Amino acid sequence: MPRPHTTTRRRLAAAAGAVGAGAVLSLIPAASGTSGALPGENVTLRAPAATSAVCHRAPRPGEAGIATTPYSAGATAEALTVRTDGGSTGDWDLAVFDHASGRKLAASATASTRERVTVLLAPGQRVDVQGCRLAGGREDLLVGLEPYDLPASVTRASQAGSGGVRLVRVEVDRDADVRRLEALGFDVTHNAAENAVDVVVYGDAQLRELRSAGFEATTVVADLAAADRASQARDAAAPTGRAGGRALPSGRTTYRDYEDFGVEMKQLAANHPGHVRLATLPGLSLEGRPFEGLEIGKDVGRPDDGRPIFLLAGNTHAREWPGGETSLEFALDMARTYAAGTDPRVSSLLERVRIFVFPILNPDGFVVSREAGAAGGFDAGDDASEATTATEAFTDAGAYKRKNCRAQTPATQNTPCALRAPYGVDLNRAYGAYWGGAGSSSQPDTQQYRGTGPFSEPEAVALRTFAGSHQIATFITNHTYTDVGRWLRQPGFDIPNDGVDPTTPDEPRMKALGDAMADATGYVSELGHATLGSLTGPSDDHLYYSQGTYGYTPELRGDNFHTSYASAVIGEYEGKGAKQGRGLREAYIVAGEFAANTADHAVLRGRAPAGATLRLKKTTMLRTSDDEDGDGQKDKEPVVFPETFESTLTVGVAGGYEWHVNPSTRPLAPAPESFTLTCEQPAGTVLQTRTVTVGRGEAPTLDFDQCTSPPPVATATPEPTPVATATPVATPTPAPSATPAPPSAVLRVSIQRPAVSARSTNRRRSIRVRVGLRGGTLTGVRVRVVDGGNRTVFSGTARRLTRSTTIAVKRRRLLRSGARYRVVVTARTAAGKAVVVRKALRVAR
Questions:
Q1: Close Cβ partners of 476 (under 8 Å, ≥ 6 residues apart)
Q2: In principle, which of 80, 626, 732, 828 could form an S-S bond with 839, CB 3.0–4.6 Å?
Q3: pTM
Q4: Taking 90 as the threshold, does the pLDDT of residue 663 lie above it?
Q5: For 586-601, what is each residue's pLDDT tens digit?
Q6: Using omega within 30 degrees of 0 as the cis cutoff, is the peptide bond preceding 359 cis?
């Protein structure tokens, strides 16, 4: 296992004379458990001003808003992890540059001060760590520097005769042989046909293992790493803004690095605040990175926004770079097109739908894959391409890393992920619904490793939590690759013993959307298990079976996980051949339009007080798979677990709401399921509750006429204390209105009888409340007697009042002597203004 250095303090101190302007070289021992400290030696960077510079573009020592500190590697090659303290205020970006050449080695640009990079350094190599303060918050940034000895296994010398990375086509009897290949630990791609599947082979030894297992393999690409480098070189040589004869919204011709995503998302939100804002999934990755994205829609960020949601995501699998690219290009496209007002279709879409885009759902793995691919491998900063690197000779490593950064043991979790292979969890096998069945593995060193249980990984928890608090109508999770391109829909598996039909209850509509997207791209539209075989635990299956979200996995067309940008990104986004001008752009728009279609989800609407919080809740029970290998036989007892959904909406100033939601009954539920819809004012104080059972295409009207916040209790005239007599009496006095009425209309409440007896009142089943009215008219008057739990004990109404009136209110519950009750009167003035009056009442025996 890589070993942390213990000499960082000496090498930092030796370089102290070259600290950039604004940097404070403050070496803080990072003892375990020290509050505010980071692993390794700590340096404080200080920038009194802010900057608008892009931190990773170039070294900028001495500029306002930028602070730097140098670092020199020791006598042996090492991996240096640099991380910042992740404070909650402000925004600092981070970059590390080679001192001699000024070349960027690594960078991070989240919308916070939580940054982390790892660079691999040659003996004695000197680098400059640069922090850029972009907005608000603290002037100081705490930076931790933690070096690790670089194992000999990642040096070029160890690569002689390894054979590099090959792509081979293996003859299979599809289902049985694919499962056997995966069980043996081979990297089986999704480019599959009826009798063949592509497999990535790492080194000569693994190729021999494949053949000794009885498989016939034909080489498709003899050196996959070299082919990748060649295609990226061609991309880099393309004219800016043009490649393959077409241009993307961004004008890019090469793949983004991790920090490019962060910078572009922050800039897009800053440039279009009316319809774009930054969004973040809950939680952090294993290495402490946030899951950042964008929300796009007209009047974005309104608390009363009940529009349906279209969710677009990429890079669940780290090496599948095109999915993150096309996701962000779509965000740029929609935001800029809406701002320009040149496309009525886009304008209509953003008026009707909230679009969430999260380009990178596996940030740790993506950083490993992209940085290895960008530099030609882990080679201490040397980007020569004469050979592959050792980490690329292991499954799930280097540019071909697929899984997340889960370590083999907790003790090694803090070791740089780039130095660990072949461990990690396949995030597309880690979700709960039918987790643990066919197409996943319990072996940590396989590419399909599903983790120790449903939602064992923070990346899966983040998406699950977001879905549980948002009503997502359609969901696309981009993957690569297949040679023809495929739009896959639920279910992703066909396992008879799981009790799930090979088609869903929503097959006609889901097929219609899949077919429409396939028509836009020239792909194949099919069920998830049709060609690729069964797999369990993916995100789109979980969202569908837990809440009815229409989910799709496009396996983008290509001949590699991240082949030529011109082909895999520009060509696929803009469309190829007869589909030019449509492509993934059109497919994503169609998915958004399906999200807007009220026939495919439910709509709740009605009246409620302005500013009130509506809360929609449901808990349902899901289960894992009971068939380990997909042979139709029960192998284990399934685990049943609860899944809770809770989303909120604030009622707008007009006092009405419209909320687009998923069906209350999930697909395959054994019985109808219902939402609990509460009206709260303030949030957390439930004033009215409804039970809602609703299906696709239904739009019930649900008014909340009892959801009015009580006014503060007047203190100028204290409450009279009841006098103990033969018949105790509670004598209430008028209280002020919570919402002041016009001067000409004053509402007064009194109790007609001088004494209220619980015994006699319970026998009569009703009481009479006199509403005193002077100087105006009230409509929709409701009189209630409520107990301490806000439950209605007596209730009565009057449609319209023009003068003082006595209203009979009927008993719904028994009065209890000595208990505390309140009389609450709600109404509206002629101008429509809400009026509330309440008064405490003690009831005697």
A1: 311, 312, 313, 551, 552, 553, 554, 588, 591
A2: 732
A3: 0.81
A4: yes
A5: 999 999 999 999 999 9
A6: no
